């Protein structure tokens, strides 16, 4: 069977952002720690947990994501979907079903300069609209601004190559920064009710949130009341009411939403 390949198409679409003036360290996952057994008589090693040193190193490598080798301060330094290109290596007029084609991607910034580092989130696929068929390829990051993809040719007929820039390496770092931070995106209200002097009814509304993040708290300071959800084990924290005690909480509700992006990041995230 012969496989025709024509109408090569490139379509880049991008949502990008920069981490202006912020230095982000590369994520280094911790090694497995020894975990005490229930009887405290022995310990569980990484091997006991089913993770060998080789497997752990492989997982570390899989989770590793290249970061910019310079401080990004302007949009023009980020990956440009207009100037970035791809090419098919050794393009032929026809192929056999089951063969693979190789695609090279070259990332450039908005000044049409070659990117020196990797980390861009590209997607590449082969597709046929009439057959409603498509297959994605694995993008290999060479960490120098170039990428390669191997695409399987699984059907007989026409095909097009589609390459999409989902996120530039710069926006990936911003997404990573806010994903790993303890920044509260959603804030809640806690409603306290109780009796005051002369049996007057007191109602107070304070801000509440989940207890989470690297430091185990969404806000520092010994000011809060803590409540543990019996069903989920989730710990809630509320600002301490001025007049009532912590045990006077009657309910909570959704409050305001907070966008963690600064003004520049918001502008750069827009299409």
UniProtKB/TrEMBL annotation:
One of its GO terms (biological process) is nervous system development. Gene3D superfamilies: Immunoglobulins (2.60.40.10). InterPro entries: Ig-like_fold, Ig_E-set, NXPH/NXPE. Keywords: Signal. It comes from the Eukaryota. The keyword Signal applies. Residues 1-17 form the signal peptide. This is Uncharacterized protein. It comes from Sinocyclocheilus rhinocerous.
């Amino acid at each position: 069977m012969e496989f025709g390949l024509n109408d090569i198409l490139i379509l880049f679409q991008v949502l990008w952002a920069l981490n202006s003036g912020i230095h982000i360290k590369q994520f280094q996952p911790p090694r497995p720690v020894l975990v005490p057994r229930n009887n405290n008589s022995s310990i569980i090693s990484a091997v006991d947990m089913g993770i060998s040193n080789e497997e752990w190193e492989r997982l570390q490598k899989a989770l590793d994501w290249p970061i910019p080798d310079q401080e990004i301060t302007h949009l023009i330094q980020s990956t440009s979907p207009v100037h970035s290109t791809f090419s098919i290596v050794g393009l032929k007029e026809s192929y056999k079903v089951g063969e693979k084609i190789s695609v090279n991607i070259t990332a450039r910034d908005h000044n049409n300069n070659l990117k020196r580092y990797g980390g861009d989130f590209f997607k590449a696929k082969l597709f046929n609209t009439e057959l409603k068929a498509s297959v994605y390829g694995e993008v290999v990051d060479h960490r120098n601004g170039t990428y390669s993809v191997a695409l399987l040719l699984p059907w007989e007929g026409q095909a097009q190559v589609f390459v999409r820039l989902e996120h530039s390496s710069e926006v990936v770092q911003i997404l990573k920064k806010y994903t790993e931070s303890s920044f509260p995106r959603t804030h809640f209200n806690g409603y306290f009710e109780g009796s005051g002097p002369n049996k007057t009814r007191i109602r107070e509304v304070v801000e509440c949130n989940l207890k989470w993040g690297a430091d185990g708290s969404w806000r520092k300071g010994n000011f809060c009341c803590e409540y543990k959800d019996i069903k989920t084990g989730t710990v809630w924290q509320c600002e301490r009411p001025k007049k009532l005690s912590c045990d006077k909480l009657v309910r909570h509700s959704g409050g305001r939403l907070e966008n963690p992006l600064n003004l520049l990041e918001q502008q750069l995230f827009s299409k």
